[in-house]
Fold this protein.
Amino acid sequence: MGKRQPSITTENFTAVQLMELDSCSRCGECVNWCPTYDASGKNPGLAPRDKILRWREFMNKSYGLRARLFGPKEIPLAELEQFKNDVYGCTTCGMCATVCESAINTVELWESMRANLVKSGIGPYGKQGMFLKLIGEYKNPYMADNKDRTNWFPPDIKIEDEAEILYFGGCTAELRQRKLALATARVLNKLGIKFTMLGEDEICCGSALIRTGQYFINDTAKKNAQKNIENIKAKGAKTVLYACAGCYRASLIDWPRLTGQELPFKVVHVTEFLQDLIKKGEIKWEKSINKKVTYHDPCHLGRHVGVFEPPRAVLESIPGIEFVEMERIKENQRCCGAGGGVKAGIPDLALGVASTRVEDALATNADILSSACPFCKRNLSDGRDAIGAKELEVEDVIVLVAEAMGIDLSDTPAE
Ligand code: SF4
Ligand code: SF4
């Protein structure tokens, strides 16, 4: 009689990751910091430590000594389904990796587990299964006509056909949170920066597919990255500006991995670009914003890549702003709750995490909770509305820059 096949495979795991599963000391520090575990009412299934221990157990049942001698032990499908629910209840914020005493790169581990489950037909979770079809068919996850990315810009916006600087707007700012795209374009125009954009040739950066373990299907994420890189090169760009933390992280880290090539351009967040101009004295402020402002670090801009100071430096240079910090910031920031496919897949969980982050902001008595990512802004606004904190304004740093430069954004089309 042939031996039973393992219920799970080792696909998508590197040798280091397989060792990482064994290096968890069960200390539980990660559990103390996990935002989705907290927001779920401390559902033990969402605790990062327990996900590692369960996957370790799955591996032992499938490939351990006993499995090698007597054949793999079956893992019931219901158990794998439950694990899927739990591993997708994670925003991939990276807080658990930051505090892990065994230095386990947990985010990469969660993403490998997700890809493994997708390959075996168990993942992804709920509506996340639509990402591939939408991005493949529409080139964006919003089912929008890709022509609408920039054709709505008012006629005063000057975009060059080709330029050394390209603004990669991203699906969310171009198709949904248009105030951010308009603010970025008008700020660059007012500063006399010649820039170009991809318009309808821009394709989703692939972040949603990568974070939810679906990047490998039909090679969609890789093909999109290659196409975007080719189109950016064809525009003559040497520096690409991003106002979306998700696109920024995908371009900087995921595109080179997917394509196996270094990027032929520099990846810069708009706040980094503006900080440089402020240092050179090239930004003239025309208005004061006499408000108390706090700043939420987007996971994909902060903890994932280490851009902490530029948004703060920009805010602190705006006349009138009294900048205040929340208790959990920078490496120890608390996630907004939107990332990792949670906003699309488990919106109630996303809202719960956002509400807690809004409470953090309210504790500072800030008038404005700012961030540097349209996806954070969306979820923090939803969290603000959910707890009825109407007095708190949620706004992007770039929009505040535009306001202080005397730029009018009242003609932004409705979402
Ligand atoms: S990445 Fe963030 S949400 Fe996911 S398990 Fe770790 S701490 Fe929790
Ligand atoms: S912090 Fe690291 S070592 Fe400690 S329980 Fe979590 S994953 Fe394991």
Observations:
- The longest helix spans residues 48-63.
- The first strand starts at residue 165 and ends at 168.
- The chain has a mean pLDDT of 96.
